[in-house]
Write a structure and sequence with these properties.
Blueprint (H helix, E strand, L loop, with lengths): L2 H4 L1 E6 L2 E6 L10 H13 L6 E6 L10 H4 L7 H6 L2 H16 L7 E6 L2 E3 L1 H8 L2 E5 L3 E3 L14 H8 L1 H10 L3 E2 H6 L5 E3 L4 H13 L3 H13 L5 H19 L5
Parallel strand pairs: 2-3, 3-4, 4-6, 5-7, 6-9
Antiparallel strand pairs: 1-2, 7-8
Helix pairs in contact: 2-5, 7-8, 11-12
Length: 255
């Protein structure tokens, strides 16, 4: 399907892929059709891609779930989902989550370029990325509680990992908005830059990620993403094993 039909497009330029939400007339509000398209991107992504950039057209990254779609009739509406048996409803939501979780893949580093609103599903899409570059006008909110829902697009664990339990609870349970300065202060932002420097900052960050050996970067990402679940001794062992693989590879002794 075309980007016009799905509201999202994938463009690849060598080792960099760009996923663009392209519904600027509704502040890139998200739909299940967009999520299905993004899940498919993971399956068709060329093997030489190392960096994936997520961006939104226009003045917002994403204003969240398109409530006009969710409230309409159809297989993805709130009413239809609620009518399903519990296991089937959960399976349907698992399909939506796949649009977000592929951005955690160990072989890529994902960057969210966030300007304007990143609300609800938009905030969770930014959280799904490894790195977040925020423009100074960015406004973030986990707004699901304000309409009686919970965040269900794989954003809760990522948020706790970034800001801790108590801050994550406060952000989710109040649904309040935070600006880029606060997001930077509490650890949600990798960089904050003026709006007119956002694209350049993301390009520079991507270039820095591409400057080093791909296999070393993959090993580093694996070490860091798994660190919170390991003891010190287990992490040290993981470091030793990763370094052994790198040494063997660099000296031509790898299998």
């Amino acid at each position: 399907m075309t980007a016009e039909a799905t509201g999202v497009r994938l463009e690849c330029d060598g080792p960099v892929a760009t996923v663009t939400l392209c519904r600027p007339d509704v502040l890139n509000a998200q739909t299940p059709a967009m999520w299905r398209a993004m899940s498919e991107f993971s399956r068709v992504l060329p093997g030489d891609v190392r960096v994936v950039i997520l961006r939104g057209e226009g003045r917002a990254f994403s204003a969240g779930l398109d409530l006009s779609t969710a409230g309409a009739s159809g297989p993805d509406s709130f009413a239809e989902l609620a009518a399903l048996p519990e296991s089937e409803c959960a399976d349907q939501i698992a399909g939506y989550q796949a649009a977000f979780t592929w951005l955690h893949r160990p072989d890529i580093i994902s960057i969210a370029a966030v300007q304007g609103h990143a609300i609800g599903a938009g905030f969770q899409l930014a959280l799904a990325c490894d790195l977040r570059v925020l423009a100074t006008d960015a406004k973030l909110s986990m707004a699901e509680a304000t309409i009686g829902l919970v965040p269900d697009l794989a954003g809760t664990k990522r948020l706790v990992e970034l800001v801790g339990y108590s801050r994550a609870l406060e952000i989710c349970a109040t649904g309040r908005r935070m600006d880029a300065a606060e997001a930077d202060r509490i650890g949600l932002a990798t960089l904050v830059v003026p709006n007119d420097e956002l694209d350049g900052a993301v390009r520079d960050l991507a270039a820095g990620l591409l400057a080093n050996d791909r296999n070393a970067v993959v090993e580093i990402k694996a070490l860091l993403t798994g660190a919170s679940g390991r003891s010190h001794a287990e992490q040290q062992r993981a470091e030793r094993e990763a370094q052994t693989r790198r040494l063997r590879d660099l000296t031509g002794r790898g299998e």
